[in-house]
Design goal:
mainly alpha
């Protein structure tokens, strides 16, 4: 219950930051190109720094065990999200590729990191890297094939997709962080402190860019489609509740609640901003992608604390 309250407070803070981004866009102080550049900076530089910083801690076998458990739960959760999207969105529906992608992939890094960091601290971010790994593996394989169509199914293009996974900033920061974690090597203060400053920019930048993206998509349009409401109820409520019901009973095996809740926050996060980027890249329905992103981002301010509250109730039974 306490973690749900922390997330709820953090969600209100994020709503305020989202409003700042929305206002900057509407006031023409932040344009589409600038928002895209800030998004790239956040994804390619700031997020990886936050991930790397989470590994700047003393090696602890218990944390390693928790990380492995989080990895198993994360791949299971991501697989369930993809499976649910495939079942719910029929292939004969117009724009099904974009809708399946929107339901399958969450903003686990962009919004997940600030939420988890505020709720569980650096240990939570450490466990969140497991979900980010699962997210990248699925997105750069299943996601590319889904959005790219048959033209993305050659062996060469699949190899390129695999290479993109291995050299993505998030994965590289995880690998580098693990090396530091296992060896106990620490950066000198003169280097670590600037990294800490840069990492602290993650939440405001992520939310401002999200607010600008919502403004650019048209706030009113995202509330007009009944189909978006229906599909996002599956993404933000039904699947996370199912995951909570599946994962929380594992507490009887001694799994820490923070691990389970970190995976739940990542899975229950709104539609990934990558949905919009992939839609542009592969010529899919970017308007539909923007509507899912906007509505889910706003709705998640209520749904994520609700999911954690239900997780707390389930947890009290074990």
């Amino acid at each position: 219950m306490e973690s749900a309250l922390i997330v709820a407070v953090q969600a209100v803070i994020m709503l305020i930051l989202l409003s700042v981004g929305y206002g900057l866009y509407k006031g023409k102080l932040l344009g589409d190109e600038a928002a895209k550049q800030l998004s790239n900076i956040t994804i390619s530089i700031i997020n990886p720094i936050v991930i790397f910083n989470s590994y700047q801690t003393e090696f602890d076998p218990e944390k390693l065990r928790g990380l492995l458990v989080a990895l198993i739960l994360s791949f299971a959760a991501q697989g369930i999200l993809v499976g649910a999207a495939t079942i719910i969105v029929r292939a004969n529906h117009d724009g099904y590729e974009t809708e399946r992608f929107a339901l399958s992939y969450s903003n686990c890094a962009f919004m997940g990191i600030p939420l988890v960091e505020a709720t569980f601290g650096s240990d939570g971010v450490l466990y969140l890297t497991a979900f980010i790994t699962a997210f990248n593996v699925f997105m750069w394989t299943h996601g590319v094939v889904l959005m790219g169509g048959s033209g993305q199914k050659t062996a060469k293009e699949r190899l390129n997709a695999l290479l993109k996974i291995l050299v993505s900033p998030a994965i590289l920061s995880i690998v580098l962080g693990l090396i530091f974690f296992f060896t106990g090597f620490r950066l000198p203060e003169v280097i670590q402190q600037p990294l800490n400053y840069l990492g602290s920019m993650n939440t405001p930048l992520a939310m401002i860019v999200s607010g600008a993206t919502i403004a650019g998509a048209g706030l009113s349009d995202c509330f007009k489609s009944r189909r978006v409401y229906l599909l996002q109820s599956v993404k933000l409520l039904i699947v996370p509740i199912l995951l909570a019901a599946l994962f929380v009973p594992m507490r009887i095996f001694g799994i820490d609640a923070s691990i389970v809740n970190t995976v739940l926050i990542a899975a229950a996060a709104p539609t990934a901003s990558a949905t919009i980027m992939f839609a542009y890249k592969f010529g899919r329905d970017e308007k539909r992608a923007s509507n899912h992103f906007a509505l889910s981002t706003i709705a998640s301010i209520i749904t994520i604390p609700l999911i954690l509250t239900l997780s707390g109730i389930f947890n009290s039974l074990y």
